[in-house]
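User: My instructor asked us to take a sequence, write out its structure as tokens, and then describe one feature of it. I'm not sure where to start. Here is the sequence I was given:
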Amino acid sequence: MPDAVPRRNGEPDMPYFDLAGARRKSLPGLLIGTLAGWAIFFLIFGLFAAPTAAAKADRLGFAAQWLLLIALLILGMTLIIAVARNFSPAIDPTLNQEPRCIDVSRRVLTNTVEQSLIFALLALAIAAAAPAGQLGVLAALVVMFVASRVVFWLGYIAGPFYRSYGVMGMQINIVMAVWAVIAVLGYQPFWLTP
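Assistant: Let's start with the prediction itself. The structure tokens for your sequence are:
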């Protein structure tokens, strides 16, 4: 493989990046993370009781209580990065001397905040529109979302191709977006119909 790809217009050469190879390396994690994550979800979702009251305020309160786990995850990630910076040259982040572990953790934190915002907004939309009896599934999704973010983080620290084991967090947001649209439109998802 060549070390650099020639560029046009007098621009400097860039290092060669094998995109197809990168995809091949990520595929096992994507498949295993997806299959294992959803298998665990289907094993645990019946363990979470839905709120008994059907009032919208009760449903929103139920969702907000479970969103606390995501807030604690973000707080924990922030504290770990702060402590790690205190014991490295990254104590002054303006010097750009962050060790790879801190750089990766900071990137994961940013991505987790982005994914968590989407998750929280969808969770509140679902809680407001879906019947109370379906919200136990929401609690299981919160648990799996937090677990997938931790797997994503640990995988990314091990190497960029291993982060794909935690891809389920993004998949959960896609499933929740579909569920939220269906619930807001007043329909019952077929997978939650008794």
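For the description part of your assignment, you could build on this observation: The beta strands are 4-5, 14-15. Try explaining in your own words what that tells you about the chain.
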